């Protein structure tokens, strides 16, 4: 059975993550050869081309695999029911905005008003790097993706926003 498009995108995201881990110093130069071999094996096995920048960008949707995983970790550990109410006073909500992330969101809103959707997507992505599970930022980026005709990515962000906050139905508007 051939890999699905979803699995091919995941393979590209993994290859991108490995390369980024070398570049940012997470992995040492001593690991470079092993990482390059791993990247090559993944690319060959899944029949993907990591040198195709558009395909890699499409695979990670303007985010890194590490940031996507951090959202997953926050959602996975999110308390539910009574334990959520008990924990609310102990720590700020996941994805709590900061002055910097709110500034980026406002700039993204300005870009949306100018119909500069790629800039808006970039600014909302930067805000999400600071507050990765903020449903408002996810919803805003979903709107920007939708306006740019990237409806699959819009749906992904809307789903993430409602996963973070099931009561935030505005994510789909």
Verbal overview:
The structure is a single chain. The protein folds into two domains: about 5-60, Immunoglobulin FC, subunit C (Single alpha-helices involved in coiled-coils or other helix-helix interfaces); about 95-170, Alpha Horseshoe (Serine Threonine Protein Phosphatase 5, Tetratricopeptide repeat), CATH 1.25.40.10. Helix 8 runs antiparallel to helix 9. It has about 170 residues and is an all-alpha fold. About 25% of the residues are buried. It starts with a helix and ends in a 9-residue tail after the last helix. It is about 70% helix and about 0% strand.
The N- and C-terminal alpha carbons lie at a distance of 38 Å
- CATH evolutionary superfamily of the largest domain: Tetratricopeptide repeat domain
Number of strands: 0
| CATH class descriptor name of the largest domain | Mainly Alpha
Shape: globular
Keywords: Repeat, TPR repeat
TPR repeats: 101-134
Domain SGTA homodimerisation: 6-70
Organism: Aspergillus niger
From the structure above, extract its key features:
Single alpha-helices involved in coiled-coils or other helix-helix interfaces, Serine Threonine Protein Phosphatase 5, Tetratricopeptide repeat, mainly alpha, 173 residues
Protein topology:
Elements (H helix, E strand, L loop, with lengths): L4 H19 L8 H15 L6 H8 L4 H12 L4 H8 L10 H15 L3 H14 L4 H13 L3 H14 L9
Helix pairs in contact: 1-2, 1-3, 6-7, 7-8, 8-9
Write a compact overview of the structure shown.
The protein has 173 residues and is mainly alpha-helical. Helices cover 68% and strands 0% of the residues. The chain is globular and about 45 Å long.
């Amino acid at each position: 059975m051939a890999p699905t498009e979803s699995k091919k995108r995941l393979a590209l995201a993994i290859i991108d993550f490995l390369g980024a881990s070398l570049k940012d110093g997470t992995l040492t130069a001593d690991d470079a050869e092993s990482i390059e071999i791993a990247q090559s094996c993944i690319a060959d096995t899944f029949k993907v081309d990591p040198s195709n920048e558009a395909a890699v960008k499409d695979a990670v949707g303007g985010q890194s695999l590490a940031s996507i995983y951090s959202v997953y970790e926050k959602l996975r550990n999110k308390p539910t029911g009574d334990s959520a109410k008990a924990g609310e006073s102990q720590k700020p909500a996941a994805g709590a905005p900061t002055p910097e992330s709110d500034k980026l969101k406002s700039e993204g809103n300005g870009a949306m008003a100018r119909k500069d959707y790629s800039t808006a997507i970039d600014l909302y992505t930067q805000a999400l790097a600071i507050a990765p599970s903020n449903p408002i930022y996810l919803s805003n980026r979903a709107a920007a993706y939708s306006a740019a005709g990237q409806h699959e990515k819009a749906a992904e962000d809307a789903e993430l926003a409602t996963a973070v906050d099931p009561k935030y139905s505005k994510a789909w508007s």
